Amino acid sequence: MHWYTSVLKQYVAFAGRARRQEYWMFTLFNIIVSLVIALVDSLIGTASVLGYIYSLAVLLPSLSVTARRLHDTGRSGWWMLLGLIPFIGAIILIVFMCQDSQGDNQYGANPKSSQSF
Fold first, then answer.
1. What is the pLDDT, as a whole number, of residue 45?
2. Which of 8, 40, 67, 113 has a CA 20 to 30 Å removed from the CA of 101?
3. Is 96 in contact with 79 (CB distance < 8 Å)?
4. pLDDT at 77 exceeding the cut of 60
């Protein structure tokens, strides 16, 4: 839960770097919360209104953690635009997100050596 809340606290921090664990734990919690909200939406019959509100609420944090994860692999946040290419773009982004951190780069020091969670 720490990883999810830390990303939400840095919701507009596009500078810096994010470790793989931070990105994937945020993604996991985001999927779990989305499924729970979809279940609640279907039970109370609100036609996905809660889901749309939640998606809008986590849009900026999702973009920022993705940009910081790309920075950790030595790429610019603009690489997120690959996601606009159907199917192929998503696969390439998943590969980028799974890659290990680079050492120190132009986006900052290696977070593996400076943090211990």
1. 85
2. 8
3. yes
4. yes
**Tokens encoding 82:** 């690959």
Structure tokens at 13: 């921090």
Q: What percent of the chain has pLDDT over 70?
A: 97
Checking if the pLDDT of 81 tops 70, the result is yes
Across the chain, mean pLDDT equals 89
The SS3 call for residue 108 is strand
Q: Which of 62, 72, 77, 75 is nearest to 7 (CA)?
A: 62
Hey, CA dihedral for 64, 88, 78, 104, is it positive or negative?
positive
Other C-beta atoms closer than 10 Å to the C-beta of 115 total 10
Burial class (CB in 10 A: 0-12, 13-18, 19+), 79: middle
Three-class SS of residue 25? helix
3-state secondary structure of 65: helix
